[in-house]
Amino acid sequence: MSQQFDVVVIGGGPGGYVAAIRAAQLGFNTACVDAYKNPEGQPSLGGTCLNVGCIPSKALLQSSENFHAVQHDFAKHGITVDNAKIDIDTMIKRKEGIISKNANGIGFLFKKNKVANIHGLGSLKGRQGEKWVIEVTDNGAVVDTLEATHVIVATGSSPRPLPGVTVDNVKVLDNEGALAMTEVPKRLGVIGAGVIGLEMGSVWKRLGAEVTLLEAAPTFLGAADQQIAKEAFKTLTKDTGLDIQMGVKIGNITVGDEISVAYEKDGANQTLVVDKLIVSIGRVPNTAGLGAEAVGLQLDERGFVVVDDHCHANLPNVWAIGDVVRGPMLAHKASEEGVAVAERIAGQKPHVDFNTVPWVIYTSPEIAWVGKTEEQLKAEGVEYKKGTSSFVANGRALGLGHAQGTVKVLADAKTDRILGLHMIGPMVSELVSEGVVAMEFKASSEDIGRIIHAHPSLSEVVHEAALAADKRALHG
């Protein structure tokens, strides 16, 4: 006898588990099916983000920044530490503890909200009357059959493979392997200078590795505002010490006791020899095993589930959210889509505005932005004005010992409405939210300039940049 539900969510990542909780809050009998198992073979909710992505990477970034601070920054505070050492095993165990605590927390939230937590791979099998049939398998064996009025596909994404090389997570690593190394490699190569490559490269560089990043794109952080991107490139190469090679064409990769990467740059053939190689060239949607073809669920040429502006697929009562559909592959975007879909099923009319989705790269200094870049505004022919301010003279930044970076405000030349906020500096992952709120409420740069910001605080740099957009900077 099949279990009956109003809503079944396939996937327990930041999109899926949030969708399930919201659906349950709205009174729907809800189940969440998730197949992930941790290295010990135990089910672990939270998807890539929690288990092998956003959360563990931040844990390792903090550990590496602490170690770097002990070696290089504490002396400026009059604190001397001799012979500082780092225990990689302890660092990894701390990371695993954070994952476990958060995964158990999701399980608790499921119990609290009466969401059925079902482990296994969910696959669409067809429709019986008004219900969708979902088969759940574990290690190839059928463990459950569910029937649901609505299905939300939230199966996420996987690392994009690099042709000609096999990821074994011993010598050649994806994001999971990069987060689980048990010792610091002497030489680390990274293919891809995107978010994952920069964050993981930064971790292992601060812990003592020589790190070289090979990026095919000719422009560093092409999605970011290029004024901020150029400052980031200079900081990450000069201060962090990453060797970032842009515009390269990867050739043969030979894996033995060491790894040899042949590549071409500026017409010259070169070779990079490393002890470990991280492959981080983007991600692809997870639809394998979903049963899309069998039930006629439409996928596009890249494998994404085709949805409309409301995340509805081409089949009745089938929805899809997060990395498996169009739009930025960001955990917070997936969560908001999950909430919106649950509310649409309940007859509400929520919205998700892709124009105000914040982006963050957790290097040191951090990089964050929301809205249009200066390059996009120029390409679209939008008349704009801009204001910039630096952290260099900010009292709070100086006290923290991280007085580097820039905040840039872009506003419509005629209406003064904020079109974008771009920044590199300390804790800008938190500061960018001011721009998100301002843009959602259609604020002007003058509005930000006339709001009182606490002193001393890092937010004063945002205030100053807004004032600069109106040519009335006070400290510039």
Automatic annotation (TrEMBL):
Record flagged with keyword Cell inner membrane: no
Gene it is expressed from: lpdA
Keyword Endoplasmic reticulum in annotation: no
Domain FAD/NAD(P)-binding: 5-338
GO MF terms held by the record: dihydrolipoyl dehydrogenase (NADH) activity
Cofactor: record remark: Binds 1 FAD per subunit.
Domain Pyridine nucleotide-disulphide oxidoreductase dimerisation, first and last residues per copy: 357-466
Enzyme Commission number: 1.8.1.4
Name of the protein in question: Dihydrolipoyl dehydrogenase
Xref: InterPro entries: Class-I_Pyr_Nuc-Dis_Oxidored, FAD/NAD-bd_sf, FAD/NAD-binding_dom, FAD/NAD-linked_Rdtase_dimer_sf, Lipoamide_DH, Pyr_nuc-diS_OxRdtase, Pyr_nucl-diS_OxRdtase_dimer, Pyr_OxRdtase_I_AS
One Pfam assignment: Pyr_redox_dim
Family of the protein in this entry: Belongs to the class-I pyridine nucleotide-disulfide oxidoreductase family.
Cellular location(s): Cytoplasm
Cofactor(s), by name: FAD
Main location: cytoplasm
Further facts: The active site is a redox-active disulfide bond.
Keywords noted in UniProt: Cytoplasm, Disulfide bond, FAD, Flavoprotein, NAD, Oxidoreductase, Redox-active center
Reactions this protein catalyses: N(6)-[(R)-dihydrolipoyl]-L-lysyl-[protein] + NAD(+) = N(6)-[(R)-lipoyl]-L-lysyl-[protein] + NADH + H(+)
Taxonomic lineage: Bacteria, Pseudomonadati, Pseudomonadota, Betaproteobacteria, Neisseriales
